[in-house]
Amino acid sequence: MALRGGMAQQLACCCFLAALALACGVALGASAPRQTGPPSKPPKMALQKFTFKQSGGKRLYTISCKKEKGKKLCLMSCPAKCPNECLASCSYCMSFCMCDIFPGTSCGDPRFTGGDGNTFYFHGKKDQDFCIVSDTDLHINAHFIGNHNPAVRRSFTWIQAVGVSFGGHRLFIGARKDAQWDADEDHIDITLDGETVDVETFKGAQWVSKALPDLSVTRTDNLNGVTVELDGVFSINANAVPITEEDSRIHSYGKTGSDSLVHLDLGFKFYSLTKAVDGVLGQTYQPDYVNRVDISAKMPIMGGAPKYLSSSLFSTDCAVSKFTGNNVAGPTVTFAS
For residue range 107-151, what is the model confidence (pLDDT) as tens digits? Predict the structure, then answer.
Protein backbone atom coordinates (compact mmCIF):
# COMPACT_ATOMS: atom_id res chain seq x y z
CA MET A 1 0.00 0.00 0.00
CA ALA A 2 2.88 2.36 0.82
CA LEU A 3 4.52 1.53 -2.50
CA ARG A 4 1.39 2.34 -4.45
CA GLY A 5 0.97 5.62 -2.59
CA GLY A 6 4.58 6.58 -3.28
CA MET A 7 4.21 5.80 -7.00
CA ALA A 8 1.01 7.81 -7.15
CA GLN A 9 2.66 10.78 -5.47
CA GLN A 10 5.63 10.64 -7.89
CA LEU A 11 3.25 10.53 -10.85
CA ALA A 12 1.25 13.45 -9.49
CA CYS A 13 4.47 15.38 -8.92
CA CYS A 14 5.59 14.80 -12.53
CA CYS A 15 2.19 15.90 -13.87
CA PHE A 16 2.23 18.97 -11.65
CA LEU A 17 5.74 20.04 -12.69
CA ALA A 18 4.94 19.54 -16.36
CA ALA A 19 1.84 21.70 -16.07
CA LEU A 20 3.73 24.25 -14.00
CA ALA A 21 6.41 24.55 -16.66
CA LEU A 22 3.72 25.33 -19.24
CA ALA A 23 1.99 27.80 -16.97
CA CYS A 24 5.16 29.64 -16.08
CA GLY A 25 6.75 29.73 -19.52
CA VAL A 26 9.37 27.19 -18.33
CA ALA A 27 9.81 29.25 -15.27
CA LEU A 28 10.86 32.25 -13.44
CA GLY A 29 14.52 32.33 -14.35
CA ALA A 30 14.49 31.24 -18.00
CA SER A 31 15.72 33.61 -20.67
CA ALA A 32 12.69 34.99 -22.46
CA PRO A 33 12.15 33.16 -25.79
CA ARG A 34 11.59 35.07 -29.01
CA GLN A 35 8.01 34.96 -30.22
CA THR A 36 7.08 34.96 -33.89
CA GLY A 37 3.38 35.42 -33.35
CA PRO A 38 0.91 36.61 -30.73
CA PRO A 39 1.66 35.15 -27.28
CA SER A 40 -0.42 32.13 -26.35
CA LYS A 41 -2.19 32.09 -23.01
CA PRO A 42 -0.85 29.52 -20.55
CA PRO A 43 -3.29 27.11 -18.93
CA LYS A 44 -4.82 28.31 -15.70
CA MET A 45 -3.40 26.76 -12.57
CA ALA A 46 -4.32 27.34 -8.94
CA LEU A 47 -0.96 28.03 -7.34
CA GLN A 48 -0.71 29.65 -3.95
CA LYS A 49 2.25 31.02 -2.01
CA PHE A 50 2.20 30.42 1.73
CA THR A 51 4.33 32.27 4.27
CA PHE A 52 4.97 30.23 7.39
CA LYS A 53 3.35 31.32 10.63
CA GLN A 54 5.24 30.96 13.88
CA SER A 55 4.30 29.68 17.32
CA GLY A 56 6.67 29.77 20.27
CA GLY A 57 9.54 30.76 17.99
CA LYS A 58 9.00 27.76 15.70
CA ARG A 59 7.70 27.71 12.14
CA LEU A 60 4.38 26.02 11.47
CA TYR A 61 4.78 24.06 8.24
CA THR A 62 1.21 22.74 8.00
CA ILE A 63 -0.95 24.61 5.50
CA SER A 64 -4.44 24.11 4.15
CA CYS A 65 -6.47 25.12 1.13
CA LYS A 66 -9.52 23.94 -0.80
CA LYS A 67 -9.09 22.19 -4.13
CA GLU A 68 -12.35 23.49 -5.54
CA LYS A 69 -15.47 25.12 -4.22
CA GLY A 70 -17.47 22.57 -2.33
CA LYS A 71 -14.59 20.09 -2.06
CA LYS A 72 -13.02 19.08 1.23
CA LEU A 73 -10.05 20.92 2.71
CA CYS A 74 -6.59 19.86 1.58
CA LEU A 75 -4.06 19.62 4.42
CA MET A 76 -0.35 19.40 3.62
CA SER A 77 3.05 20.18 5.09
CA CYS A 78 5.59 22.42 3.40
CA PRO A 79 9.12 20.96 3.21
CA ALA A 80 11.16 21.96 6.27
CA LYS A 81 14.05 23.09 4.03
CA CYS A 82 11.96 25.94 2.59
CA PRO A 83 13.30 29.18 4.12
CA ASN A 84 10.14 31.18 4.88
CA GLU A 85 7.50 30.23 2.36
CA CYS A 86 6.45 27.52 -0.05
CA LEU A 87 4.39 27.12 -3.19
CA ALA A 88 1.37 24.82 -3.10
CA SER A 89 -1.01 23.33 -5.63
CA CYS A 90 -4.39 22.77 -4.03
CA SER A 91 -5.49 20.75 -7.08
CA TYR A 92 -2.76 18.18 -6.45
CA CYS A 93 -2.56 18.76 -2.68
CA MET A 94 1.22 19.05 -2.95
CA SER A 95 3.77 21.60 -1.76
CA PHE A 96 7.25 22.57 -2.93
CA CYS A 97 10.07 24.95 -2.08
CA MET A 98 10.13 27.74 -4.65
CA CYS A 99 13.90 27.25 -4.99
CA ASP A 100 13.36 23.67 -6.15
CA ILE A 101 10.94 24.59 -8.92
CA PHE A 102 11.96 27.83 -10.59
CA PRO A 103 15.18 28.07 -12.62
CA GLY A 104 17.37 31.04 -11.77
CA THR A 105 16.91 30.83 -8.00
CA SER A 106 19.34 30.60 -5.10
CA CYS A 107 18.34 29.93 -1.51
CA GLY A 108 19.88 29.07 1.82
CA ASP A 109 23.18 27.18 2.03
CA PRO A 110 23.51 28.11 -1.58
CA ARG A 111 21.10 25.84 -3.40
CA PHE A 112 20.69 26.87 -7.02
CA THR A 113 18.16 25.80 -9.61
CA GLY A 114 19.81 26.22 -12.99
CA GLY A 115 18.43 27.27 -16.34
CA ASP A 116 18.23 23.57 -17.21
CA GLY A 117 15.85 22.99 -14.30
CA ASN A 118 18.29 20.95 -12.18
CA THR A 119 18.99 21.84 -8.55
CA PHE A 120 22.53 21.82 -7.18
CA TYR A 121 24.62 23.20 -4.33
CA PHE A 122 27.62 25.50 -4.66
CA HIS A 123 29.26 26.21 -1.32
CA GLY A 124 31.93 28.72 -2.37
CA LYS A 125 33.91 29.96 0.62
CA LYS A 126 33.35 32.35 3.51
CA ASP A 127 34.35 36.00 2.88
CA GLN A 128 35.07 35.41 -0.80
CA ASP A 129 33.41 36.44 -4.07
CA PHE A 130 32.42 34.18 -6.96
CA CYS A 131 31.06 34.95 -10.42
CA ILE A 132 27.63 33.40 -10.74
CA VAL A 133 26.76 34.95 -14.11
CA SER A 134 29.26 36.27 -16.66
CA ASP A 135 28.23 37.39 -20.14
CA THR A 136 29.58 39.91 -22.64
CA ASP A 137 27.59 42.85 -21.22
CA LEU A 138 26.50 41.53 -17.82
CA HIS A 139 28.53 40.22 -14.90
CA ILE A 140 27.17 39.19 -11.48
CA ASN A 141 29.35 38.25 -8.53
CA ALA A 142 28.11 36.92 -5.20
CA HIS A 143 29.72 37.54 -1.81
CA PHE A 144 29.58 34.56 0.54
CA ILE A 145 29.38 34.61 4.32
CA GLY A 146 29.73 31.50 6.45
CA ASN A 147 29.84 29.78 9.78
CA HIS A 148 31.90 26.81 10.94
CA ASN A 149 30.35 24.29 13.30
CA PRO A 150 33.15 22.31 14.98
CA ALA A 151 30.61 19.86 16.42
CA VAL A 152 29.93 18.47 12.94
CA ARG A 153 33.30 19.54 11.49
CA ARG A 154 31.60 21.40 8.64
CA SER A 155 31.42 24.96 7.33
CA PHE A 156 28.21 26.43 5.93
CA THR A 157 27.88 29.35 3.53
CA TRP A 158 25.21 31.76 2.31
CA ILE A 159 25.06 34.58 -0.25
CA GLN A 160 25.14 37.93 1.55
CA ALA A 161 25.35 40.29 -1.44
CA VAL A 162 25.55 40.48 -5.21
CA GLY A 163 27.47 42.95 -7.35
CA VAL A 164 26.05 43.54 -10.83
CA SER A 165 28.20 45.15 -13.53
CA PHE A 166 26.52 46.38 -16.73
CA GLY A 167 26.87 49.28 -19.17
CA GLY A 168 29.51 51.07 -17.11
CA HIS A 169 27.38 50.85 -13.95
CA ARG A 170 27.76 49.02 -10.66
CA LEU A 171 24.69 47.83 -8.77
CA PHE A 172 25.00 46.50 -5.22
CA ILE A 173 22.27 44.48 -3.48
CA GLY A 174 23.15 43.26 -0.01
CA ALA A 175 21.75 41.97 3.28
CA ARG A 176 22.84 43.98 6.30
CA LYS A 177 24.51 42.06 9.12
CA ASP A 178 22.63 41.95 12.41
CA ALA A 179 23.36 40.16 15.68
CA GLN A 180 19.65 39.76 16.44
CA TRP A 181 17.11 39.66 13.64
CA ASP A 182 14.34 42.23 13.90
CA ALA A 183 11.53 41.67 11.40
CA ASP A 184 10.46 45.30 11.85
CA GLU A 185 13.75 46.57 10.39
CA ASP A 186 14.76 46.64 6.74
CA HIS A 187 17.95 44.65 6.17
CA ILE A 188 18.37 45.25 2.43
CA ASP A 189 20.94 47.77 1.18
CA ILE A 190 21.04 48.85 -2.46
CA THR A 191 23.45 51.25 -4.16
CA LEU A 192 23.93 52.31 -7.77
CA ASP A 193 27.42 53.55 -8.62
CA GLY A 194 28.04 54.11 -4.93
CA GLU A 195 24.87 56.17 -4.34
CA THR A 196 22.30 54.83 -1.89
CA VAL A 197 18.96 53.79 -3.35
CA ASP A 198 16.12 54.77 -1.00
CA VAL A 199 12.76 53.08 -1.47
CA GLU A 200 9.79 53.88 0.75
CA THR A 201 8.91 51.10 3.15
CA PHE A 202 5.56 49.81 1.93
CA LYS A 203 4.67 46.98 -0.40
CA GLY A 204 4.57 48.16 -4.01
CA ALA A 205 6.73 51.26 -3.41
CA GLN A 206 8.96 51.90 -6.41
CA TRP A 207 12.17 53.77 -7.11
CA VAL A 208 13.20 54.60 -10.69
CA SER A 209 16.70 55.80 -11.50
CA LYS A 210 16.86 59.31 -12.96
CA ALA A 211 20.20 58.56 -14.59
CA LEU A 212 19.03 55.19 -15.90
CA PRO A 213 15.23 55.25 -16.37
CA ASP A 214 15.12 51.57 -17.36
CA LEU A 215 16.32 50.58 -13.90
CA SER A 216 13.76 50.25 -11.10
CA VAL A 217 13.47 48.85 -7.59
CA THR A 218 10.07 47.70 -6.33
CA ARG A 219 9.27 46.45 -2.85
CA THR A 220 7.60 43.03 -2.83
CA ASP A 221 6.88 43.42 0.88
CA ASN A 222 6.94 46.31 3.33
CA LEU A 223 10.46 45.32 4.38
CA ASN A 224 13.24 42.92 3.35
CA GLY A 225 11.91 42.08 -0.10
CA VAL A 226 12.57 43.82 -3.44
CA THR A 227 12.62 43.25 -7.17
CA VAL A 228 15.37 45.05 -9.06
CA GLU A 229 14.79 45.23 -12.81
CA LEU A 230 16.67 46.57 -15.79
CA ASP A 231 14.20 46.49 -18.68
CA GLY A 232 15.14 43.97 -21.33
CA VAL A 233 18.21 42.75 -19.44
CA PHE A 234 17.44 41.21 -16.03
CA SER A 235 15.09 41.02 -13.08
CA ILE A 236 16.43 40.11 -9.63
CA ASN A 237 14.13 39.22 -6.77
CA ALA A 238 15.93 39.53 -3.42
CA ASN A 239 14.69 38.68 0.07
CA ALA A 240 16.76 39.24 3.22
CA VAL A 241 16.28 36.35 5.64
CA PRO A 242 18.04 35.26 8.86
CA ILE A 243 19.15 31.89 10.15
CA THR A 244 16.84 31.20 13.06
CA GLU A 245 17.53 29.07 16.12
CA GLU A 246 15.23 26.47 14.60
CA ASP A 247 17.15 26.51 11.30
CA SER A 248 20.40 26.04 13.19
CA ARG A 249 19.01 23.16 15.22
CA ILE A 250 17.58 21.32 12.21
CA HIS A 251 20.61 21.77 9.95
CA SER A 252 23.39 21.90 12.59
CA TYR A 253 24.60 25.31 11.43
CA GLY A 254 26.16 26.07 14.83
CA LYS A 255 24.70 29.58 14.94
CA THR A 256 25.71 31.73 17.90
CA GLY A 257 23.97 34.71 19.48
CA SER A 258 26.44 37.17 17.97
CA ASP A 259 25.25 36.84 14.37
CA SER A 260 21.85 36.05 12.84
CA LEU A 261 23.60 35.26 9.53
CA VAL A 262 21.29 37.47 7.47
CA HIS A 263 21.58 36.51 3.81
CA LEU A 264 19.76 36.82 0.49
CA ASP A 265 17.37 34.40 -1.14
CA LEU A 266 17.50 35.29 -4.82
CA GLY A 267 15.54 34.79 -8.00
CA PHE A 268 16.95 35.77 -11.39
CA LYS A 269 15.28 36.25 -14.74
CA PHE A 270 17.36 37.07 -17.82
CA TYR A 271 16.13 38.45 -21.15
CA SER A 272 19.18 38.73 -23.41
CA LEU A 273 21.90 36.26 -22.46
CA THR A 274 24.28 35.13 -25.20
CA LYS A 275 25.27 31.54 -25.93
CA ALA A 276 28.65 32.19 -24.32
CA VAL A 277 27.28 33.00 -20.85
CA ASP A 278 29.19 31.36 -18.01
CA GLY A 279 29.48 31.35 -14.24
CA VAL A 280 28.12 29.09 -11.51
CA LEU A 281 24.52 29.75 -12.56
CA GLY A 282 25.07 31.37 -15.95
CA GLN A 283 26.54 28.29 -17.62
CA THR A 284 23.26 26.41 -17.09
CA TYR A 285 21.64 28.78 -19.63
CA GLN A 286 23.99 27.74 -22.45
CA PRO A 287 21.93 26.02 -25.18
CA ASP A 288 24.42 23.12 -25.35
CA TYR A 289 25.11 22.93 -21.60
CA VAL A 290 25.93 19.44 -20.33
CA ASN A 291 25.29 19.03 -16.62
CA ARG A 292 28.13 17.10 -14.96
CA VAL A 293 26.71 17.35 -11.43
CA ASP A 294 25.44 14.09 -9.97
CA ILE A 295 21.78 15.10 -9.82
CA SER A 296 20.82 11.76 -8.26
CA ALA A 297 22.93 12.51 -5.17
CA LYS A 298 21.21 13.54 -1.92
CA MET A 299 23.15 16.81 -2.12
CA PRO A 300 24.27 17.45 -5.74
CA ILE A 301 27.35 19.67 -5.45
CA MET A 302 28.95 21.72 -8.21
CA GLY A 303 32.70 21.82 -7.75
CA GLY A 304 35.36 23.84 -9.53
CA ALA A 305 35.19 26.81 -7.16
CA PRO A 306 38.64 28.21 -8.12
CA LYS A 307 37.56 29.01 -11.69
CA TYR A 308 34.64 31.09 -10.40
CA LEU A 309 36.67 32.98 -7.78
CA SER A 310 36.79 36.78 -8.22
CA SER A 311 39.19 39.14 -6.48
CA SER A 312 36.36 41.42 -5.26
CA LEU A 313 32.63 41.90 -5.54
CA PHE A 314 32.84 44.01 -8.71
CA SER A 315 35.89 42.40 -10.29
CA THR A 316 35.32 40.63 -13.59
CA ASP A 317 38.52 38.59 -13.37
CA CYS A 318 37.21 35.08 -12.64
CA ALA A 319 38.73 32.44 -14.92
CA VAL A 320 35.46 31.90 -16.81
CA SER A 321 34.68 35.61 -17.26
CA LYS A 322 33.08 36.56 -20.58
CA PHE A 323 32.52 40.21 -19.66
CA THR A 324 33.80 42.69 -22.26
CA GLY A 325 31.76 45.69 -21.17
CA ASN A 326 32.96 48.85 -19.49
CA ASN A 327 33.34 48.09 -15.79
CA VAL A 328 34.17 51.60 -14.55
CA ALA A 329 36.07 52.09 -11.32
CA GLY A 330 33.85 52.70 -8.34
CA PRO A 331 33.88 52.74 -4.56
CA THR A 332 35.28 49.68 -2.82
CA VAL A 333 32.69 47.54 -1.04
CA THR A 334 33.74 46.26 2.38
CA PHE A 335 31.97 43.77 4.57
CA ALA A 336 31.73 43.63 8.36
CA SER A 337 33.42 40.61 9.85
Answer: 666 778 889 888 888 989 999 999 999 999 999 999 999 999 999
Beta strands in 18-137 (DSSP E): 47-51, 53-55, 58-60, 62-66, 73-77, 85-89, 94-96, 105-107, 111-113, 119-121, 129-134
Q: Which H helix or E strand runs over 176?
A: none
With DSSP H G I counted as helix, E B as strand and the rest as coil, what are the percentages for the chain, rounded to 5?
10, 35, 55
Q: pLDDT of 159-171, one tens digit each?
A: 999 999 999 999 9
Cα 211 from chain centroid (whole Å): 27
Q: Is the model's pLDDT at 34 over the cut of 50?
A: no
Residue-wise over 37-76: b if at least 16 C-beta within 10 A, else e?
A: eeeeeeeeeebeebebeeeeeebebebebeeeeeeeebeb
**pLDDT by residue (tens digit) across 259-309?**
999 999 998 999 999 999 999 999 999 999 999 888 888 888 999 999 999
Q: pLDDT of 48-85, one tens digit each?
A: 667 766 665 566 667 677 655 666 677 777 766 666 67
Compare 101 and 290 and report the one with higher pLDDT: 290
Instruction: Return left, alpha or beta for 103; rule: phi > 0 is left, psi -120 to 50 is alpha, else beta.
Output: beta
What pTM was estimated for this model as a whole? Answer: 0.74
How far from chain centre, in Å, is Cα 121? 12
Hey, which residues does 229 pair with through a beta bridge?
A: 216, 235
Q: Do 151 and 182 touch, CB atoms closer than 8 A? A: no
CB-based contact 23:61 (threshold 8 Å): no
Q: Considering Cα of 297, then 298, then 304, then 310, what sign does the dihedral take?
A: positive
Asked if residues 134 and 318 have their Cβ atoms less than 8 Å apart, the reply is yes
**Among 266, 261, 276, 268, which residue's Cα sits nearest to residue 320?**
276
Q: Which amino acid is at 328?
A: V
**Which residues, at least 6 apart from 253, have a Cβ–Cβ distance to it below 8 Å?**
147, 149, 156, 243, 247, 261
